[in-house]
Amino acid sequence: MHRGPMKTRTVILSILLFLLMVAAAQAAPSVVSVTSPQDAAALVYVSGYEIDPQVFYPYESGTVTVHVTNAANTSVGVSQPDLIDPHVHILNQDAFNTMTNIGPGATVDYSFLITVDPPDDTYFPLFTVSPKAGGNAIHATLKLVVDSTPVRASISKKPDTFSLDKTDTVNVSITNPRDGDINNVLVVPEGSGTDISPAESFQPVVSAGSSVMMPFSITPHQAGNVTFHVTYRNGKNQHTSDVVLPLNLGNDKTAASPIINNIVLTTTGSSYQIAGDVTNAGITDAKSLVLTVLPPARPVEPYVNYAVGSLASDDFSSFELTFTASDLSAVPVQVSWKDASGNTFTSTTNLNLNTASNSTSGTRSGSSGSGAASGTTGGFARGGAPGGGGGIFGIGGSSRGGGLSAFYLPIELGIGVIIAVILWMKRKWILAKLKKKQ
After folding, report:
1. Please, which contacts does 197-206 make with residues 24 or more away whose CB atoms are closer than 8 Å?
2. Do residue 79 and residue 217 come from a single domain?
3. In terms of CB atoms within 10 Å, which of 2, 215, 316, 350 comes out highest?
4. Domains contained in the chain, number
5. How far is it, in rounded angstroms, from Cα 408 to Cα 93?
């Protein structure tokens, strides 16, 4: 016999049917048996109410919905519902001219469209409705709040100054100090000559006593203002306000600041090679950093440009560039990099690498240049000129290649250059050890 599974299904169905009967009994309103219309009217009561908006602004319109329930086992007719308060004005009074019958255990809703007068306060309008059978009126005291406290819109985050064509983040803060929620908050920015993203920002609800921040990315291409148009609803009433953000243009105090220093010039055949350091003296990192020479110098292989990559704040990197030039008194070196938002920046430093003497076997020495980059650029050079039998540190060999025949720089200067080279190499070694430990 295979009655086991069928018996189990029967038990399960019986349990489910019992649970449904219990749920139906709990859901059905209880009623009281009465024998007279007056007793039935005495069992009609206000079972609840809702007010929208939760808190009114003065003169705002809204809705008060009152729930009236009949606990008797017979229908009860009621009429003349009203809200009584000198500050509350009913806009749809004509909607309640007819009598309403409330069935046994049933509930009817009375929705009043109202406006509320100032001043700010908490009011207690009295709801009343009269039963057909006579006797005492059915009534209840409601609570209604009027508050003129505004919702605040402000700029909670912005840079001290904006830079042309640089993207910065601005946060618009919406603060709701009221005791009721606001909804459908929409912020739309507007500004000429400025790229703004997103075009609008939406928040469905800002709860009572809370705030939200809405971020916007702003890239100014000219000076001006950005106006944030803020709209929200209190109940069904729309409110608007504007927040104006001046785009004060200036230098970015936190920007990366690559500085070129420790320049060394050597000759390689018919071209020149400069080696040195680039240091980030700014606050933020410089990303995708690349160096190259500009006209009148002409970059040549093998180091047409030099890609450093990301250079952290207070860090440095060595570089090498090869080029040809007919005049070493003006060799522009351009540094380009990006910030965290992908904005591209450039700075140019003019290096003065003119010949220290007229001898073809003499030394090329660098001197400070001027350019767009801040800081100073100092340098020194080594190696002989193309085609000569040059020595180092200003000590040149003769054109016949035979010994130390001439000194183009004083001995003291040669010794100073040697000391400078030793200190420079020692500095790079110490910084490399420190960076490795970190």
Report:
1. 201/172, 203/174, 205/181, 206/151, 206/174, 206/176, 206/181, 206/182, 206/232
2. no
3. 316
4. 3
5. 109
Spatial CB neighbours of 413, under 8 Å, sequence gap ≥ 6: 394
Residues 272 and 228 in one domain: no
- Evaluated on CA atoms 154, 156, 160, 161, the torsion sign reads negative
The dihedral built from the CA positions of residue 260, 265, 268 and 270, taken in this order, carries a sign that is: positive
pLDDT digits (tens, 9 = 90+) for 312-330: 989 999 999 999 998 888 8
Per the structure block, which two tokens stand in for 58? 């003065």
For CA atoms 361, 362, 365, 371, give the dihedral sign.
Answer: negative
**Cβ neighbour number for residue 315 with a 10 Å cutoff:** 15
Cα separation, 322 vs 391, in Å, equals 21
pLDDT at 372: 40
At 8 the three-state DSSP class reads helix
Query: In this predicted model, what pLDDT tens digit does every residue of 218-241 receive, in sequence order?
Result: 999 999 999 999 999 999 999 999
Contact residues for 214 (Cβ-Cβ < 8 A; gap 6+): 171, 172, 173, 174, 187, 201, 203
Coil/strand/helix, residue 180: coil
pLDDT at 430 over 80: no
Q: Position 103: which residue type? A: G
Q: 193: which 2 tokens?
A: 């000559």
